[in-house]
Amino acid sequence: MSQLDLAIVLAAGEGTRMKSTRAKVLHEIAGRSLLGHVLNAIAPLQAKEVRVVVGAAKEEVIAHVQLISPNAKTIYQEVRGGTGHAVKLALENYHGSGTVLVCAGDTPLLTSETLSNLLAEHNSTNASATVLTTEMPDPSGYGRVIRDKDGSLAEIVEERDATDSQKQTLEINSGVYIFDFLELRDALSQLSASNSQKEEYLTDVIAILKKSGKRVGAFVSHDFTEVLGINDRSQLSTCSFIMNARVCDALMRSGVTIVDPMSTWIDMTAEIDVDVRIEPGTAIKGNSKVGKSAVIGPRTTLVDCRVESGAHVLESHCESSEIGFGAMVGPYSHLRGGTVLAGNVKVGSFVEIKNSKVGESSKVPHLSYVGDATIGTDSNIGAATVIVNYDGVEKHQTIIGDHVRIGSDSMLVAPVTIGDGAYTAAGSVITEDVPPGALGMGRAKQTNILGWVLKKRKGTKSAEAAAKKEGST
Ligand code: UD1
Ligand code: CA
Description:
Elements (H helix, E strand, L loop, with lengths): L5 E6 L16 E2 L2 E2 H9 L6 E6 L3 H11 L4 E4 L6 H9 L7 E6 L7 H14 L3 E7 L8 E4 L5 E5 L6 H4 L3 E10 H8 L15 H8 L4 E6 L11 H21 L3 E2 L6 E2 L4 E2 L4 E2 L4 E3 L3 E2 L4 E2 L4 E3 L2 E2 L4 E2 L3 E3 L2 E2 L4 E2 L3 E3 L4 E2 L4 E4 L1 E4 L2 E2 L4 E4 L2 E3 L1 E3 L4 E2 L4 E3 L9 E3 L4 E2 L4 E3 L2 E3 L4 E2 L4 E2 L8 E2 L11 H5 L4 H12 L1
Parallel strand pairs: 1-4, 1-6, 4-5, 7-11, 12-15, 13-16, 14-17, 15-18, 16-19, 17-20, 18-21, 19-22, 20-23, 21-24, 22-25, 23-26, 24-27, 25-28, 26-29, 27-30, 28-31, 29-32, 32-35, 33-36, 34-37, 35-38, 36-39, 37-40, 39-41
Antiparallel strand pairs: 2-3, 6-10, 7-10, 8-9
Helix pairs in contact: 6-7
């Protein structure tokens, strides 16, 4: 791939139209910030240096750049003097030469492929500047590309400065350019702010170069969606939709079944193996990994989860959890952070598990809460069992061994240990350890007061029913 000397990403704008307390470029689509998408797209071009111009919400943006792209430099633009002014600042203290890419931090759909085609075109034509352009079905808001009679690029006119006939032009400036550094530096020194916004427009560099007899070129992208810029939440949603379609499409091509891509949202950071089947209404987010032939959904959310092959997770919400080989989760399970389910575990309806390990083939089938616990292999946790992990001040651990049978509606008051092969009686409140093989029983012994209804509830249907039964026996 051709060598790029410097990449400049402009990200100082206020993003006023987002109506947000967050910087525009930090809004996310497909699990990555807008700026992250742009930095990701330029990465394969291996620029010797990357400079990001920041302004609005600078602390937040600088911290984010340091996190996702530690080698990139950030440059502070105190006053928004326009895209030309921003590039001037970015070039301060730059002593290199060669080729410079300029793009904006709010065009997350740009691909590395298009960028490297643009660079190749620039290099092969020996131009001073090459602009990435495209024909937009609705060009409103974008700078228009004005060509000479011979078809060559003449200038870029911002919409607010354009004449009515210039506004008819469908070819727009994407805001992505490759420049020869020295030519760019000279042209920037001639910029003025004599336009409707009183800003120094980077776009004016094109006409300046052209007038001084330099060669400027346009590289036309045939996919206008790649250069869609985000200025408001409606465009954020449009780009999110397009990015999601790309992610789903790539997954389907790689052997994943997605029953309804329109209702399936997958972050580009997720990894999904072949023959996985994703049912409608499912979201797979963050650094989730899903192994071969697993079934996810319908209506399931996985955030940073690892799902081993053959597992089924349906109608459930799972965060930072591991779901073992062949495990069954749901419907209506909630796995919270630190849940680790071994192979062939079953977690059923209305079960919440947090920070707990469940051993191979164990089952928590119905209506339970399991928190801060370790459960061994082949154990069964009866319906409506609650692990009482919190004493109001601190959380405590519960250990349940192998082949344990916890009776329905047991309260296991932590810290407590239930030994291997032990049972608890249904309805018990277990506050003491249960040794291996023992039956732990923690409830009042039942007594039946015979004839009570006939005496105390005379004349009721119950009494009538009881009387009939007595008569018949
Ligand atoms: C710009 C182009 C326009 C093009 C469009 C493509 C100019 C004058 N216009 O318009 O021709 O069609 O992009 O999306 O360049 N920024 C700074 N500092 C500034 C001003 C802007 O860093 O002083 C950054 C913004 O944060 C943004 C980018 O530069 O990331 C573009 O600025 P924006 O105001 O969005 O320009 P557009 O009006 O979209
Ligand atoms: Ca813009």
